[in-house]
Amino acid sequence: MSDDTLTTPEPTPGAIDGLDDQAALTPGMVFGHIYAFLHNKVVGLVLILAAGLLSLFGVLFPQMPSSARADAESMASWIESVRPTFGGWTDILNAIGFFTMFSSIPFLVVMALLAASIVACTVHRLPVLWQAAKHPHTRVTAAFFDRARLRSTFTTSASPEAAFEILCADARKHRMRVVVDDRGPGLNAYMDRNYWAPFGTAFAHAAFVTIMAGFVVSALSGFRNEQFTLTIGFPREVGNGTNLVAEATAFQDSYYDNGSPKDYVADLRVSDNGEQVAQQQVRVNSPLSYHGVMFHQAYFGVAAVMKIDDSSGAEVFHNGVALEWATPDKTLTYGRTTLGDQTIYVIGSASGQTGTGIEPGQVRVEIYGTANNEPIGKAVLDVGTPTTVGDHTFTFEREQQFTGMIVKKDPGTPIVWSGFLLLVIGTCMTMFFRHHRMWVRVSGCDEGTLVRLGSPDRQDSGFTRFFTGMIMRTSGKMAHIEERTNNAS
After folding, report:
1. Is residue 441 a contact partner of residue 141, using CB atoms and an 8 Å limit?
2. pTM of the model
């Protein structure tokens, strides 16, 4: 029996589970796995479907306006307004982000992964496109000329060199690139046109990423308030992280003979940190713009100018309350404002309505708390008569016109338009400047010179006509050479 014994070697320092430490994942290997995962076509398809599904949810479910996200109280009020529709699911759907889908974490994560997948696919494909464009495959087998989608074979008595030169010269004349392959057999050339066209897919991919980035930028840093009301003569803060204050100093409206609005225009003034920075007459199609914030004229109506004092006599509110909504029976119009944790509704009779309990020159005030749906105080106010309701004194000063505007900031718009430009460029490159390829082989044969041409590209009527025309032109020139040779002999 041999004295040799089989022993297990000690693991090398730094080894994992006794294995060579080279088996440990390096940062480069981790990046490689992530890269391989992202450019996988199945992963890309799943992410596209996920993005489409989340976008569908964003369309089907009501979305909280940006004006309601300005403070916790407004958000809570909006959530309560949709609770009758969704019941016990309301808080769950809100926590998941269904009511703020396009700025929710699930949507942003899916869009980020989709953008990363598109970038990875593009980066993965670019070397292939570059190789095909700068170093095309110039050699084909003889069988290729027998099965190519476009093919032609003919013989001529012109010399192989002359026939080959005629083919190359005709291709160059018609703006085709000619790459000669000297490796034989015979004389070989690769010809193509628009070799840069396949890069259109890279432009299209870049366009999708750019457009998604634009939407994300708008969702995260933009806002849109479709019910920004300004009572004429009373300034109002724009909010949403800006220091802007808007004021409508005047308003004019005109009508057609049938009573429909013909034109309405507000004289709008905008201040930034107390300094006036913009002033313009704003119409429906003539918005005022300042540092990306747009003021669009949308609607108008009547507001009730209210003055509210607290129990000590200090003024806590002095502004117009736009009566911009109507009851289902169209007999009353109303608006609302907030005062601390209380919501104050101001109600008036709709134009031409009588018997509502609110006479001309009067409004009704109703005060609601957060605890229940019953008013904690209400009263009918006469013009100019201070009336105590709850802990505050209300004075209805007068009626005044208001203008309703859409105020929005969409910083992602230039990015989105850049993306659409890239998409147009990529689409044009792919659809209207197709990459056409052709292989040519000229060799000697018993009948003289054998000329073979073939192209594997999909059927294209324009390229088919060019291919046929090239054969007719070059074969005619070769026949002319043959005729001159015969005459000379």
Report:
1. no
2. 0.66
Where b means 16+ CB within 10 Å and e means fewer, 431-442 reads: eeebbbbbbbbb
- Domain boundary residue among 370, 392, 409? 409
Number of domains in the chain: 3
Q: What is the pLDDT of residues 398-453, one digit of tens each?
A: 999 999 999 999 899 899 999 999 999 999 998 888 899 999 999 998 888 999 99
Directed axis angle between helix 461-488 and helix 160-173, to 10°?
140
**Is 263 found in the same domain as 236?**
yes
Q: E-assigned strands of 194-257?
A: 223-231, 236-237, 244-255
321-347 pLDDT, tens digit each: 999 989 888 999 999 998 888 889 999
Going by C-alpha positions, the residue among 360, 363, 259 that lies closest to residue 303 is 363
Asked whether 380 and 398 are in contact (CB, 8 A), the reply is no
Compute the distance between CA of residue 274 and CA of residue 235 in angstroms, rounded to an integer.
11
Separation CA 320–CA 401 (nearest Å): 9
Q: Which two tokens stand for residue 46?
A: 């799943």
CATH number reported for the structural domain that contains residue 153 in this entry:
3.30.310.80
Q: Across the strands, what pairs with 322?
A: 303
Q: Which domain holds residue 157?
A: 137-194+435-488
Residue bearing tokens 């713009």: 289
Q: Look at residue 133 and give its three-state secondary structure.
A: helix
What is the torsion angle, in degrees rounded to the nearest 10, for the CA atoms of residue 324, residue 327, residue 333 and residue 336? -60
- Residues 292 and 411: beta-carbon distance below 8 Å: yes
Nearest Cα neighbor of 223 from 68, 42, 46 is: 68
What tokens does 443 get? 């060799």
On whether both 181 and 228 belong to a single domain, the answer is: no
